[in-house]
């Protein structure tokens, strides 16, 4: 009977620690996604500037060469362009995306929809650069949050698990 109780307490402790680590990982994932989206926008800008490919083809190519979470944004945008303009398609793709980005991050990305496909190449490139500048601010903020909260949630999960084990003993 004591062995079962010890295993159950160990299970509670490990489970609580795991939950704390999962919550902490969200901060790392957000930072990684922000950095990756900044790189993707740089590629997008280069493709618009130098290849003159249509936006749906650029979206398709980026979607196929990008990680699943962010690739789905470009994939949805490319599919939405059958029914909507480039800006509207981008906006709808951002709104329906399932990423680790915050609402503020998504708002920064949705700013890109204002001029996407509606102006000349230079206008679109300048809008992408503006979005990249805002993303840089978001990356710095995400780095600070990660540094502050990641360690906190890992330790909090372990501490809560230990507290539950002590209470149950």
Q: What can you tell me about this protein's structure?
A:
This protein has one domain (2-168). It is built from 6 helices and no strands. The chain has helices spanning 2-50, 55-64, 68-80, 86-95, 103-110, 121-168. The chain is elongated. The chain has 169 residues and is mainly alpha-helical. Helix 1 packs antiparallel against helix 2, helix 1 (2-50) packs antiparallel against helix 6 (121-168) and helix 2 (55-64) runs antiparallel to helix 3 (68-80).
**Roughly what fraction of the amino acids lie in strands?**
under 5%
- The number of strands is 0
Structural class: mainly alpha
Distance between the termini: 13 Å
What gyration radius follows from the Cα positions, in whole Å?
21 Å
Give the overall shape, derived from the CA principal axes.
elongated
Question: What number of structural domains do the residues give?
Answer: 1
Tell me about the largest β-sheet.
none
Index terms:
169 residues; single chain; 6 helices; mainly alpha
In brief:
It contains six helices and no strands. With 169 residues, the protein is mostly helical. It is elongated, with a radius of gyration of 21 Å.
Question: SSE layout and pairings?
Answer:
Blueprint (H helix, E strand, L loop, with lengths): L1 H49 L4 H10 L3 H13 L5 H10 L7 H8 L10 H48 L1
Helix pairs in contact: 1-2, 1-6, 2-3, 3-4, 5-6
């Amino acid at each position: 009977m004591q062995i079962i109780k010890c295993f159950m307490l160990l299970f509670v402790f490990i489970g609580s620690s795991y939950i704390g680590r999962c919550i902490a990982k969200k901060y790392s994932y957000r930072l990684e996604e922000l950095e990756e989206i900044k790189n993707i926008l740089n590629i997008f800008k280069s493709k618009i500037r130098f290849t003159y490919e249509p936006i749906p083809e650029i979206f398709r190519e980026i979607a196929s060469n990008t990680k699943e979470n962010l690739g789905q944004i470009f994939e949805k945008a490319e599919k939405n362009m059958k029914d909507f303009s480039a800006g509207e398609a981008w906006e709808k793709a951002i709104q329906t995306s399932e990423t680790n980005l915050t609402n503020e991050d998504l708002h920064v990305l949705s700013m890109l929809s204002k001029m996407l496909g509606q102006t000349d190449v230079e206008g679109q490139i300048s809008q992408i650069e503006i979005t990249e500048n805002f993303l840089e601010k978001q990356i710095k903020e995400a780095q600070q949050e990660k540094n502050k909260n990641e360690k906190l949630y890992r330790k909090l999960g372990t501490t809560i698990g230990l507290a539950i084990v002590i209470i149950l003993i």
